[in-house]
Design brief:
With about 130 residues, the protein is mostly helical. Helices cover about 75% and strands about 0% of the residues. The chain is built from four helices and no strands. Helix 1 packs antiparallel against helix 2.
């Protein structure tokens, strides 16, 4: 019983963080311009798509509806970010601060994606 309560608290914390990330994408898109890969068409629309995705994942986790689907999609999204945005920025950035920030974001996205995979794989028990 205690494990379920602790797991639920961890999921709620993740949902709050995701909601905050989602809202940030709407409030401060200019701060995210450097992260959109040049090969991706659509430009600024991606800020809002990702913001909506984070908010929807947060709602799914908070309401305990479609948790498995939301968590698997979140994991895929974050793995894609890590591999297509943060890793290339780390490898090709000449700016030390950008390189450091990209490395931290790479690790953060991998960690949250791993947690999302855990949630998805255990969604029936949580």
């Amino acid at each position: 019983m205690k494990e379920q309560i602790i797991s639920r608290i961890a999921i709620v914390i993740l949902a709050v963080v995701l909601a905050a990330y989602g809202v940030y994408h709407f409030l401060k898109p200019a701060n995210l311009v450097n992260y959109i890969p040049s090969f991706l068409p659509g430009g600024d629309i991606w800020f809002y798509i990702v913001g909506v995705a984070f908010i929807l994942a947060a709602v799914a986790l908070l309401t305990h509806r479609q948790v498995k689907l939301a968590a698997y999609l979140l994991a895929v999204l974050l793995f894609l970010f890590a591999l297509t945005i943060h890793l290339p920025n780390y490898l090709h950035s000449g700016d030390v601060e950008m390189k450091s920030q990209s490395y931290i974001n790479f690790l953060k996205d991998l960690a949250i994606a791993a947690f999302a995979l855990y949630i998805a794989s255990n969604s029936g028990k949580l």
